[in-house]
Amino acid sequence: MPSSDVRLLLSAVVPTAAVGVIATVISGVVAGGKGALGAGIGTLVVLIFMGTGLFVLQRTAKNLPQLFTAMGMMLYAAQLLLLFALLALFKKTTLFDFKAFAFSLIAATVVWAAAQARAHMKAKTFYVDPKNTGSKQ
To answer: Alpha-carbon distance 121 to 102, whole Å?
Structure first.
């Protein structure tokens, strides 16, 4: 994985993990051990879903750059639908506090999206690859 991809990944993972820790502590205080467990699981789910999605999107950008935008839109829509499906699936669970899970899932998703958008805006990405200009020298 190139260093620019690692920087992009870390710029989204670190704030999301920080929000997850805060959500876990708050949920632990408010709802006890089950609340902390729910918040931790919610944050972990977001980190896995979004991290995997970012990895797939970066691979698509390198292999099929013409599909990058469409793949990005489809990927984010699929991720959000899967997160909503998880919320519906775990609605009646007694393993952990559902409200803590849901709130941490939503907070971590919003933070991930904002951090990733900020990282893309601050990245100095070439619009033209200087190695492939088409001229032979």
So the answer is: 29
pTM: 0.80
Of the candidates 56, 41, 52, 43, which has an alpha carbon nearest to the alpha carbon of residue 14? 43
Own/partner pairs, 73-80, CB within 8 angstroms, 24+ separation: 79/49, 79/50, 79/53, 80/109
Higher pLDDT, 13 or 133: 13
